[in-house]
Amino acid sequence: MTQNHFNVIVVGAGISGIGAGYYLQKKCPNKSFVILEGRDNIGGTWDLFRYPGIRSDSDMNTMGFRFKPWMGVKSIADGPSILSYLHETVKENDLNKKIHFNQWVNEASWSSEDAQWTVQAENKKTQEHQDFTCDFLFLCGGYYNYEEGYTPHFAGRENFLGQIIHPQKWPKNLDYKNKKVVVIGSGATAVTIIPTMAEEAAHVTMLQRSPTYFLSAPDEDPVGNFLRKFISSKLTYKLVRWKNIRFQWWFFQKCRKFPKKVKEFLIKQVREELGPNYDIETHFTPKYNPWEQRMCLVPNGDFFNAINAGKASVITDHIDRFTKKGIKLKSGGEVEADLIVTATGLNLEVCNGIKLEVDNNEVDISKTMTYKGMMFSDVPNLVATFGYTNASWTLRADLTSEYVCRLLNFMDKKGYANCCPRTAEHVEPDGDWLDFTSGYVKRSMHKFPKQGSRDPWRNTQNFPKDVLAIRWGNIDNKELKFTALEN
User: Fold this and answer.
1) What is the side-by-side order of every strand in the sheet holding 326-329?
2) What is the pLDDT of residues 232-268, one digit of tens each?
3) What's the whole-model pTM score?
4) DSSP assignment string, 277-312
5) Which domain holds residue 181?
6) Helix %, strand %, coil % for the chain, to 5?
7) Cα–Cα distances in Å, from 179 out to 163, 208, 311?
8) Does residue 152 fall inside a structural domain?
9) Is residue 475 part of a domain?
């Protein structure tokens, strides 16, 4: 076995990759593995994004790992606290020695003859190329392009005399004190940035094309904080975690079954925050149903508080063009700005943007079908992590890592070298991989695999169902084909 050969290669050292490392070390102690991280630090999203107020948009009792209780008082945590939690996890499990930094994976090629993947990586500091080989490839690099966020074309952009920033590339020590700021967008990033910037800026305007659903909630979990006074933190974490999981699923089901009633509840909550004289119909009443797009969490009502204090405002309109002094609207008005923040979304990627080949034939993932939401038809010995859109990412990431370990141990027990999902003749493609209408999803869905007409070719986005199917379900399946080791 050469120095660059491992039983498993994990790509990415964010939440998913760190979790994968823990589970491989714990559940598959005889397997060698390495984590290839393209950047110079762990943390993924939580190290990349540095914009003001960055925080979780899920509670940390479900976004934290199953195996490591979140000990913070706040269940809606700020970015630095989450990054510290991830560093603790790496240190406690001695995973630093497994992580190779600045190894940006560009290509991976499977050879059936050798029963292994060859992974090509570029050192981002030295530009040197290095090949690694592995028996199993585990992609944990997230779901979006780390190099560039999504920014639509804005006519006249070059005319604006101020600064234009995308949250994905926030400058260090940016001074926005006493400046007029326009934030383009109304998603989770915008609603996080605005109340924080409003504390120092002269004024912050959220400029949106269409409204988003907002849910105001405290940033602390009163039940969890109460239970910690009487029982262990570990048990408290488990109890609160399942409480929140059940609530998330219950609320999601209510949104799907009774969208009109949930919409009325959400709009009523906003009206109570902003008062009866605010134009809720224009600025806070979406045309789509709740949870057809991701809902925005407003901890302690901070976004609404900034509006009520006159430090922030909302404009619902379309952009005509950028001007020297700001943004001209299609309605004819103009919004003045010293600084424009384009919180316009991400560029989604499938399989971390890696070029995949199987026996010298390039794989077009969009032509494949998803197996259990983590593997792809006719692609051997490969799993890719993709979290939930209707719950915390880590819930699915944990399950995926558990499944990989179960799969590897099953293959060792049976003497198998390869596993490959193969669709049966009577399974047909049946819809997009995600049932979600958000712009960043729709822009990129053509890159993703299709769902099948039945399980296990469905990407269920259903945690309770996935627990049964992935954590406890049989590995041996007639549609997951195994090949024995050759003598």
Assistant:
1) 319-322, 326-329, 334-336
2) 888 999 999 999 999 999 999 999 999 999 999 999 9
3) 0.95
4) TS-HHHHS--SSPTTSSPPEEEETTHHHHHHHTTSE
5) 157-342
6) 30, 25, 45
7) 11, 20, 11
8) no
9) yes
